[in-house]
Amino acid sequence: MLNHTTLIIIITVIVSLVAWQNKALFNRLIFYPPAVNNGQWDRFVTHGFIHADSMHLLFNMFTLYFFGRAIEGLYKPFLFGYGFVVFYVLAIIIAMIPSYIKHKNTASYLSLGASGGVSAVLFAFILLAPWEKIYLFAIIPIPAILFAIAYVAYSIYADKRGGSNINHMAHMWGGAFGVIATIILEPQVLPHFINALLSPGF
Question: Per the database record, which ranges form the Peptidase S54 rhomboid domain (predicted)?
C-alpha cells in the first residue's frame, strides 16, 4: 500500500503533466485572484498540483519525497489516518492566503506550485531534527536549523526586492504553518526541538 507522501507525489505529477498538455485545464487550476473573487475558491487547492516546468516539479517532489516520508508517521494518528494529507493540503491553502489578500485586485497576478505544502513539510522536519543535514542543491550539507534561518531571511529579502515570478511569501507562510500546526497537534515536539537544538552533538 502506498504511503500518503508517495500518493500525493503521483497525483501531483499526473496533474502537472496533463495540465502542460491542456492549456484550458492549466488556466483553470492556476491561482488567479479575479477567478477566486468570482467564486472559484478551489483554486486555493488546485494551484498546488500544477507546476511551471519540469525543474519546478522535480525540485518540489524531490523535497517532498525525502522529508514527507520522514515525518508522515507523526500525523497518521489524526483524522482517521489522513492527518498528513490534510496537513499538506491545508498548508497549500494557508500559504496562499497572504498573497491573495495582497493581490486580490491584481488582474495580472498568477501563482502555482506545491511550495507552500512542501515548505510546511520541510519545516516540520526541522522541528524534529534541527541538526540533521540537509543537502543544498543535493550536494552541499547544511544543518537543518541553519537552512531554516537562511531560508526565511532570503524569502523576506526576495519578496521585498520583487522582480521574480517566485512566490517567496508562500514558502515562508507554508513553513510557518508547518511549525505551528505540528506543535498544536503534538505539543511535545516543542520541548523536543529545544532540547535537540541545545544538544547539537547528541
Answer: 39-185
